[in-house]
Design brief:
The complex is a heterodimer of chains A (311) and B (258). Chain A has eleven helices and 14 strands. In chain A, the strands form three sheets. Chain A has a six-stranded mixed sheet, with helices on both faces. In chain A, strand 4 and strand 5 form a beta hairpin. Chain A is elongated, with a radius of gyration of 24 Å. Chain A starts with 6 loop residues before the first strand and ends with a helix. The radius of gyration of chain B is 20 Å and the shape is elongated. The N terminus of chain B is likely disordered. In chain B, helix 3 runs antiparallel to helix 5. Chain B starts with 9 loop residues before the first helix and ends with a helix. Chain B has ten helices and no strands. The chains are: A alpha/beta (311), B mainly alpha (258). Chains A and B meet through helix 2 and helix 3 of A and helix 1 and helix 4 of B. Bound molecules: adenosine-5'-diphosphate (ADP) and magnesium ion. The site of magnesium ion (MG) has 5 residues of chain A, from helix 1. The site of adenosine-5'-diphosphate has 10 residues of chain A, from helix 1.
Chain lengths: 311, 258
């Protein structure tokens, strides 16, 4: 028997005062999968997510959560997922512990169960030391962690995360990634939205790229990057006399055409693994290089590549 | 899912939401400050400023002003629920309430139950402030409690109106300024601080058009006569009427907002 999909989104459409925010989007998310919705600010990610989580009525289309219609069986559907919104959806005026207690109670846990779960989550998310402090003194990262902890009270099989790392500093961002990976290991299905290609690449099994409310492309991170053309490599050769040799060596090794601009050479790598052998080949030939840059494709590149001729 | 999830239960959810609102007020005691400081300030200011002019001395002015300030405080406590609800709706936390498998109306119901505590504190403060200044109602303690309860019920009924305003308004700030305006108009254009007989004909007409006048009169009568008067019935029915009309409207506005 084939397992039921965690999420099925069919022809989802939302208009705000005749301005279309989500335009006929359909996709499925399998159980255990991490699915990324990737798009720039205003692409329609939050709107899509709000419709999936029953917070917003769609103008058209439907959403199924583990096979249950999110409108007709709203309450059942809501009991199956946890949601962490784009803006911290915890109570600012009360402590972390009180937040967890109250949301545990509202999720239907008994007082005893709530106490136990609260303690577990405070420990799991390293919030024990600040459990009773007012949230006003929390850093952005702590707030996010609490927010996520609250969405995990019932250990939902499906978790929605709307831009979980936007606005976090790099270190906190990496911590959040680790937390998400831990959830994945525990078998959760995760749908996350992000504006960053590297984040989607790091976390997601499959990515849906959306822009202006339209789904442009769906695929694995590898498929997407292939389409964009991989990593850009750039450097200058110190001596003119070596340029021709260098170009030939690179062409042989990469099997791709090399662009030359005066002393500067640039090429596209299909995989970052090609970089080290290439550098050692140049080194063995005693070719000296400088100003080396390696540039991962950015979201801009994704959109340049995917939206050309479509909009 | 190994944590057992029960079906949302309206009463439990409402109790939890009321508890949440209480915690919020405990962490932000300034929300209590208005219902504590305001009646004390008004009692002192009005008592010592106007006591002599209006009633000859402070002590004989107190039976007029204590019920007046009590009801004024009820109005401002009630008006707080409007801005609180608006603030809640606009905050991210409401999205989470909506995404939980709980009784939909619980956040609203919890707010209105938590309001009762504010009203009780406001009532105790107002009456105690009067007592400290020398107010000794003729009716005795039992009737003071009765008048307090009637004031609380009226305040609670009125908080449904402010809750509706909060749900219909654009922002918490606009609710707040609008509520303040209503509160000031209703109390100053009533018999809260002055005996009606001193007023001109037009002013008398306006004051008698104001329902708050009847509430204050009823409280004064209970306190001075020590009996449940005709006016007291009228005010009780008026309060019930407000709840019957405004509770469904408020619930409607709340659901519409969702
Ligand atoms: N409540 C709303 N009313 C009107 N327009 C909205 C509303 N919510 C979102 N939009 C518009 O819909 C589009 C998509 O927004 P959103 O889903 O928040 O994008 P994202 O989350 O990808 O940044 C934007 O143009 C935004 O201005
Ligand atoms: Mg968004």
């Amino acid at each position: 028997m084939e397992a039921v999909n965690a999420i099925e989104v069919n022809h989802l459409t939302k208009k705000f005062n005749n301005k279309i925010a989500v335009d006929d989007i359909s996709f499925n998310v399998k159980q255990g999968e991490v699915f990324g919705l990737l798009g720039p600010n205003g692409a329609g990610k939050t709107t899509t997510l709000r419709m999936m989580t029953t917070l917003l009525k769609a103008n058209n289309g439907n959403v199924k959560i583990f096979g249950h219609d999110s409108v007709k069986e709203g309450r059942l559907a809501r009991s199956m997922f946890g949601l962490t919104g784009q803006y911290a959806s915890v109570d600012e005026d009360i402590s972390a512990r009180e937040n967890l207690m109250i949301f545990s109670r509202l999720n239907g846990l008994s007082r005893m169960e709530s106490k136990k779960r609260t303690q577990e989550l405070l420990a799991e998310f390293s919030l024990l030391n600040s459990a009773d402090k007012p949230l006003k003194d929390f850093s952005g990262g702590m707030r996010r962690r609490l927010d996520l902890a609250v969405s995990l009270i019932t250990r939902p099989a499906l978790i929605f995360l709307d831009e979980p790392t936007t606005g976090l500093d790099p270190r906190t961002r990496t911590q959040m990634w680790d937390t998400i990976r831990k959830l994945v290991k525990q078998g959760s299905t995760i749908l996350l939205t992000t504006q960053y290609l590297d984040e989607a690449d790091q976390l997601a099994d499959r990515i849906a790229v959306i822009d202006h409310g339209k789904l442009i492309k769906i695929g694995t991170p590898e498929e997407l990057k292939q389409e964009i053309g991989g990593t850009k490599l750039n450097f200058t050769i110190d001596r003119y006399s070596q340029i021709n040799t260098a170009t030939k060596l690179m062409t042989d090794q990469l099997g791709e055409s090399i662009n030359r601009n005066d002393k500067q050479l640039s090429a596209t790598l299909n995989s970052i693994d090609q970089l080290a052998p290439l550098l050692s080949t140049l080194h063995e030939a005693q070719i000296t290089i400088s100003n080396l840059t390696v540039q991962e494709p950015s979201l801009d590149d994704v959109f340049m590549n995917l939206t050309v001729g479509k909009n | 899912m190994d944590v057992q999830t029960h079906r949302g239960n309206l009463i439990m959810n409402t109790a939890t939401m009321a508890y949440r609102n209480l915690l919020k007020t405990i962490h932000n005691p300034d929300q209590f400050m208005d219902v504590i400081i305001q009646p004390i300030m008004f009692m002192l200011m009005f008592g010592y400023l106007f006591g002599g002019a209006i009633s000859g001395n402070v002590k004989s002015y107190l039976p007029t002003i204590v019920p007046g300030i009590l009801i004024q405080t009820m109005l401002s406590a009630a008006s707080g629920s409007g801005s609180q609800i608006r603030e809640d709706l606009d905050s991210g936390v409401f999205d989470r309430f909506k995404s939980l498998p709980m009784a939909h109306i619980a956040p609203l119901a919890g707010q209105l139950f938590a309001d009762i505590l504010r009203l009780v504190i406001a009532t105790i403060t107002s009456l105690s402030a009067g007592f400290v200044m020398g107010w000794r109602p003729a009716s005795g303690f039992g009737w003071v409690v009765v008048s307090g309860l009637l004031a609380i019920f009226t305040g609670w009924a009125i908080s449904w109106i402010f809750a509706l305003l909060g749900l219909l308004a654009k922002s918490a700030a606009s609710v707040q300024s609008f509520s303040l305006m209503i509160m000031l108009t209703l109390t100053f254009l009533s018999n809260a601080f002055i005996p009606i007989k001193t007023l001109s004909k037009t002013m008398k007409f306006i004051v008698y058009m104001n329902p708050i006048t009847y509430v204050i009169t009823a409280i004064r009568q209970i306190l001075s006569t020590g009996s449940w008067t005709h006016e007291a019935w009228l005010v009780l029915l008026f309060g019930i009427g407000i709840v019957v009309v405004f509770a469904p409207l408020t619930v409607w506005a709340y659901n519409r907002n969702n």
